[in-house]
Design brief:
Family: Belongs to the ETS family.
Subcellular location: Nucleus
Organism: Salmo trutta (Brown trout)
CATH class of the domain at 3-134: Mainly Alpha
Protein name: E74 like ETS transcription factor 3
Number of helices: 12
InterPro entries: Ets_dom (IPR000418), ETS_fam (IPR046328), Pointed_dom (IPR003118), SAM/pointed_sf (IPR013761), WH-like_DNA-bd_sf (IPR036388), WH_DNA-bd_sf (IPR036390)
Mean pLDDT: 59
Largest sheet: 4 strands, antiparallel
Structural class: mainly alpha
Distance between the termini: 33 Å
Number of strands: 4
Strand order of the largest sheet: 1-2-4-3
DNA sequence: AACCCATTTCCTGTTT
DNA sequence: GAAACAGGAAATGGGT
């Protein structure tokens, strides 16, 4: 195989790995701009960019493909605690499984087994972890390639970041940007199956899940903010001054809960605004686990309706890592879109909205044109 | 650091 | 009366 086709194959595989989910906005870095971190740093980088960097669990440092049953169990336990999932509702019929079997499960299978909330969480985590190790392997291939073809002409177009190759580097932001963009999940978290389905019937066990209460969620920096009630916030702030209107500070900013996060990517995934999230639910209804969350009222006109408003809000909250999202709050954001003409008002019809002239990507022709 | 943007949060009042 | 809708006000947090 020629060096050019070899490089092409490596990058194609990498792209397929990272974009296989058909995200609505796959920010595809071009060959001319992609920054390639040195292989030796890759795992480290993905650790840093992962929100679970502080979890030194064995499973976290291992490709899911190689997980033992115990690793799988630890991983599930971790997510049960993280989502404060009521473990007692889990069916014990899901017997133990090892990593290879787990990796064969489809998203639907996971959702069937663990439900919408935990299932989605597990699926996302699994896809991310798989991608993390797949990316690592891709870079190994690339490093080998670079050694083998040091004078490959296309290399002048590839930006290999020297700062990263230098162990004294300090700034990862540019890499995080790329890595963030390369996230395997579609932004909405209900992407089509990227884990190939196979025979396995999805046998997972939950022998001894630690109860959700047994440990504080502080173990996960990303989910370190406990659920405070309105009362709590009011009391806490009321001592300083009367709780004004507006948004209270996020607890994750509290240093007590925000330890060791200086290396974590500080920005939420970009590129998906609320209206895009809504649009994607509408144009990919098959990705909602047969939940009819929304529907078109008038496809041509862009009129749509929320069927399960709170479920959509929860999904939006999940995406924004905000478990307290509600339809009431989501709808306020929707109403702000009227002024910007991203949405047009639909009077007199509850839960019905209409895309405006400043929204894109929802028209049938657009979708067909761009293969969305 | 300061500013902007896109929300998020809260709230009061109105409509369905 | 409950659920939505409206929209003001203020706050957050990522990005520049």
């Amino acid at each position: 195989m020629s060096s050019a086709s070899e490089l092409c194959r490596i990058l194609t595989n990498a792209n397929m790995t990272m974009y296989q989910t058909g995200s609505s906005e796959p920010l595809q870095p071009s060959l001319t701009t992609v920054s390639l971190p040195a292989v030796g740093d890759l795992l480290h980088l993905s650790d840093l960019s992962s929100c679970s960097a502080n979890i030194l669990a064995q499973w976290y440092d291992l490709n899911p493909q190689y997980w033992s049953k115990q690793n799988v169990l630890e991983w599930i336990s971790f997510h049960v605690e993280r989502t404060k999932f009521d473990a007692s509702t889990l069916s014990m019929s899901y017997c133990s499984t090892d990593g290879p079997t787990l990796c064969q499960l489809t998203r639907d299978q996971l959702l069937n087994m663990f439900g919408m909330s935990l299932g989605t969480q597990l699926y996302q985590s699994l896809v991310e972890l798989k991608a993390k190790y797949d990316l690592n392997e891709t870079c190994k291939l690339l490093d080998n390639f670079l050694e083998e073809f040091p004078d490959f002409p296309l290399l002048s177009t590839v930006e290999v970041n020297e700062v990263v190759r230098d162990t004294s580097y300090t700034d990862f932001s540019h890499i995080f940007k790329n890595f963030e963009n390369m996230k395997p999940l579609s932004d909405n978290g209900y992407e089509s199956d990227s884990m190939h389905s196979s025979s396995s019937g999805g046998m997972l066990s939950f022998q001894n899940p630690s109860s959700p209460e047994s440990r504080s969620s502080e173990s996960d920096p990303e989910f370190s903010y406990p659920q405070f009630t309105k009362v709590h916030i009011k009391t806490e702030r009321g001592e300083m001054k009367k709780r004004g209107r507006g948004r209270p500070p996020k607890l994750s900013r509290d240093p007590k809960h925000f330890y060791q996060t200086s290396t974590k990517s500080k920005h939420a995934p970009r590129g998906t605004h609320l209206w895009e999230f809504i649009r994607d639910i509408l144009i990919h209804p098959e990705q909602n686990q047969n939940q009819a969350l929304m529907k078109w009222e008038d496809r041509r006109e862009g009129v749509f309706k929320f069927l399960k408003s709170e479920a959509v809000a929860q999904l939006w909250g999940q995406k924004k890592k905000n478990s307290s999202m509600t339809y009431e709050k989501l709808s306020r954001a929707m109403r702000y879109y009227y002024k910007r003409e991203i949405l047009d008002r639909v009077d007199g019809r509850r839960l019905v909205y209409k895309f405006g002239k400043n929204s894109t990507g929802w028209k049938v022709e657009e979708i067909e044109l761009h293969g969305m």
